Amino acid sequence: MSPATSRAMLNSPKVSHSWTIIGPRLGLKVVDKTLLEAKQTGVPQNIWSDLFPNLALNNGEKVTWSALSTNNEEKAIVVEVTKNGRPRINNLPINSNLKIGDSIALYFGDGLIKIFEWQ
What we know:
The protein is of the alpha+beta class. It is 15% helix and 39% strand. It has one domain (3-118): At1g16640 B3 domain. The protein has helices spanning 3-10, 33-38, 48-51; strands at 14-16, 19-23, 26-30, 41-42, 62-68, 74-81, 87-90, 103-108, 112-118. A 9-stranded mixed beta sheet has the order 1-2-3-8-9-5-6-7-4. The radius of gyration is 13 Å and the shape is globular. It starts with a helix and ends with a strand.
């Protein structure tokens, strides 16, 4: 286990806004209106490194990653830090039967996010 993984496990669970970090690279997200309608979500700066330990972006930078939906359908997504410094994930493949207040789990690999249903 790497030192970064060990630190993340010691600090779990960590709650920030609508996110809960439950393990290394593993977060729970409470579904909100922006996620349902715009298929995007902000990532609080204080948990960015827990979810993206190997990704450093400057303000205004973005990268294209892949996301696997709950049905294992792959879609191109955009991970970015906006010009004002706000981390965000765009174009997420969110299941249409989710509603505000539901939770999903997301695993953040290198270049890939896997989305899971969470009960």
